Amino acid sequence: MSRKVHGSHTRIGKYEIGKTLGEGSFAKVKFAKNVDTGDSVAIKVLDKVQVLRHKMVEQIKREISTMKLIKHPNVIKLYEVMASKTKIYIVLEFVDGGELFDKIVNNGRLKEDEARRYFQQLINAVDYCHSRGVYHRDLKPENLLLDSYGVLKVSDFGLSALSQQVREDGLLHTACGTPNYVAPEVLKDKGYDGTTADIWSCGVILFVLMAGYLPFDESNLIALYEKIFRADFTCPSWFSSSAKKLIKRILDPNPLTRITIPEILENEWFKKGYRPPDFESEEDVNLDDVNAVFNESEEYLVTEKKEKPVSMNAFELISRSRGFSLENLFEKQMGLVKRETQFTSQFPANEIMSKIEETAKPLGFNVHKQNYKIKLRGDKTGRKGRLSVATEVFEVAPSLHLVELRKTGGDTLEFYKFYKSFSSGLKDVVWKSEAITEDASG
Ligand code: ADP
Ligand code: MG
């Protein structure tokens, strides 16, 4: 039996592509799953010609290489890059908490303490990337995402050069067309400094978080530019005076006198409740993928593949055999509960894997995945030691998988109890062509 994954999805390399998460002005972002590990990722899909002909291609390559090395809790991780004949794929950490600004759109402005917590995370991420020579240049609400714990994750660090086009006249243009977050010197294009420009954008973001509206907002673009050039804004009355002072120092139209990050880190308003994050630095990171993509090496090209369709004959065949029904899981008599059991599923292997993980975790199991094997280890010691279970997913036929569960340690009765809760959690993925016998009480 092979362990390939089958389904009706598109595959790119080891990733199975899912729905579109969003679309920016120059890229599409797709949800995907790594079929080897079951991990969720986001893949940014770019037009290869556009990227490789870009005036800043060397800088883009350098920044993407650096981003692969960066492991900061508030920065979306860049896992790898791939290229097909026509596209470049940037594989990113997937976060599912939505955009920070959805919160403001849905619930209005934030309390000062909450705004400060996000601002602290933002400044920390920005400071760290700057220290590695990577600038954002396009800090805006769409690039501030939240993970499922509500932790801020800044996306598109090092990628923003991609969205900028240097026109014939040498002026830098942001592709999105809304300059509300852009620093005056960037708009004037006086050969600006990425550091101070990013700080300005952080100030606009902080203002929006606490006010619920933009500091500079004009329907007329010329009027908007003028307000930004003069830093012509007013803080609402509910801002504390120390917050007002800090924002005034950030939204200084002169980049040379604008507050710096070391100064922000020393600011009283900023420092309140500040806990810089703890994180490990990078391990050995391989940059072969980045080099291959940017050197246009033919060797590593990936292709988009549509997977084989489902074969119904296989189902019919198996359904007649009665061999792999859920009945196997529960022997008619309690005493006969085996230490090994199996079920079949029509779900793709990676979905089965994720479901097993999702189900086992709340039951107090540590989950270790490798290829199509999962080891579950109980966190409590039972009568006969910790309960541990090994599972493996096999492909029987296209889109028909056999899942095997074996107790590898611990008490059989505990295994039985575990299996009862476990199988009810897995109901959705277990193939229900036959009646399911859940009554094992005997
Ligand atoms: P932009 O940043 O210009 O809006 P992008 O192409 O970067 O455009 O992203 C489009 C949208 O896709 C984002 O606004 C966001 O909602 C979503 N998105 C981007 N990256 C991720 C990610 N790593 N995880 C989840 N969603 C993402
Ligand atoms: Mg983005």
Automatic annotation (TrEMBL):
**GO function terms (MF aspect):** ATP binding; protein serine kinase activity; protein serine/threonine kinase activity
Which EC class, in a word?
Answer: transferase
Pfam families cross-referenced by the UniProt entry: NAF (PF03822), Pkinase (PF00069)
Q: Enumerate the catalysed reactions.
A: L-seryl-[protein] + ATP = O-phospho-L-seryl-[protein] + ADP + H(+); L-threonyl-[protein] + ATP = O-phospho-L-threonyl-[protein] + ADP + H(+)
Annotated keywords: ATP-binding, Kinase, Manganese, Nucleotide-binding, Serine/threonine-protein kinase, Transferase
What Enzyme Commission number does this protein have?
2.7.11.1
For the biological process aspect of GO, one term held by this record is: signal transduction
Binding positions for ATP per the UniProt entry: 44
Do the record's keywords include Transferase? yes
Its cofactor is: Mn(2+)
Q: Where is the Protein kinase domain?
A: 15-270
Which superkingdom? Eukaryota
For this protein, the record's InterPro entries field holds: Kinase-like_dom_sf, NAF/FISL_domain, NAF_dom, Prot_kinase_dom, Protein_kinase_ATP_BS, Ser/Thr_kinase_AS
Q: Which residues form the NAF domain?
A: 307-331
Keyword Cell membrane in the entry? The reply is no
The family note in this entry says: Belongs to the protein kinase superfamily. CAMK Ser/Thr protein kinase family. SNF1 subfamily.
**Name under which the protein is recorded:** non-specific serine/threonine protein kinase
Q: Which organism is the protein's source?
A: Nelumbo nucifera
Q: Which gene encodes it?
A: LOC104593614
